[in-house]
Write a structure and sequence with these properties.
There is one protein chain. The protein has about 240 residues and is an alpha/beta fold. The chain has a single domain, classed as Alpha/Beta hydrolase fold, catalytic domain (Rossmann fold), CATH 3.40.50.1820. Helix content is about 35%, strand content about 20%. Strands 2-1-3-4-8-9 form a six-stranded parallel sheet, with helices on both faces. Strands 5-6-7 form a three-stranded antiparallel sheet. α9 links the parallel β8 and β9. α2 crosses α3. The relative contact order is 0.18. The mean pLDDT is about 95.
Length: about 240
């Protein structure tokens, strides 16, 4: 299976737009690259109340017309894992970019609570109906973008959207179909959203050669897109 095809999947409150600087860098390295909006994100208008984890997984699979390396940022660790469990034949490799790797029987919200620290909470505000949460602009730079250019932070804050809660509360148990897919992890070493030590805990059962690191924040796609593209290229073509 070729890994020269790469699908990029955004995290909470973001959209395909967050990969704007990484896509041309990967294309320059010879990869065919796509980025998608998950349901209710970016240009997708699915109502928040209708979004499920399975809907996320199916959206990922629908974007794959041939096997590709699928990169999931942050929250997207759950959707890319679910997609691999549904149909591993379409996925050449999973790459968790400072992302949650599901533990058996736990939804993302419960898994996040297993981390030794909860730095992300100061930057999130739940909606009045409890169906979603949003990023608080006054804490966004500190938590998500501390080393990103000012223009990138402004670009992001103009586009972030409410994040449906339901898919993050859905427990996942992954089986042999998921286990058949190669996987890699990229730790962000100064992450202000997901504690770096918890990222390393989640990657503890990965093969050591499949665990990589980047300096900097939770948003390497803005802070160091060329370095991220170089690393993804190396993972795709070891």
């Amino acid at each position: 299976m070729s890994e020269r095809d790469i699908l990029l999947v955004h995290g909470s409150c973001h959209g395909a737009w967050c990969w704007r600087d990484v896509m041309p860098a990967l294309e320059a390295r010879g990869h065919a690259v796509r980025a998608i909006d998950l349901p209710s994100h970016g240009a997708d208008r699915t109502p928040v109340a209708e979004v499920t984890l399975d809907l996320y997984g199916q959206a990922i699979l629908a974007a794959l017309d041939r096997p590709a390396m699928v990169v999931g940022h942050s929250m997207a660790g759950y959707p890319i894992s679910r997609a691999a469990e549904i149909d591993p034949s379409r996925i050449a490799r999973l790459v968790y970019l400072c992302a949650y790797v599901p533990w058996p029987g736990l939804g993302l919200v419960e898994m996040r609570r297993r981390a030794p620290r909860q730095p992300i909470l100061k930057a999130l505000e739940k909606s009045a109906d409890g169906l979603s949460f949003s990023i608080l602009p006054e804490h966004a730079r500190e938590v998500f973008y501390h080393d990103c250019p000012d223009e990138s932070v402004e670009y992001a804050l103009a586009r972030v959207c409410p994040q449906p809660v339901r898919p993050q509360e859905t427990p996942v148990t992954l089986g042999p179909r998921y286990a058949s897919v190669p996987r890699s992890y990229v730790v962000c070493e100064e992450d202000g959203a997901i504690p770096t030590e918890f990222q390393r805990t989640m990657a503890a059962d990965f093969a050591p050669a499949d665990v990589h690191a980047l300096p900097g924040s939770h948003s390497p796609f803005f802070a160091r897109p060329a370095a991220l593209a170089d690393l993804l290229h190396d993972i795709a073509e070891p």
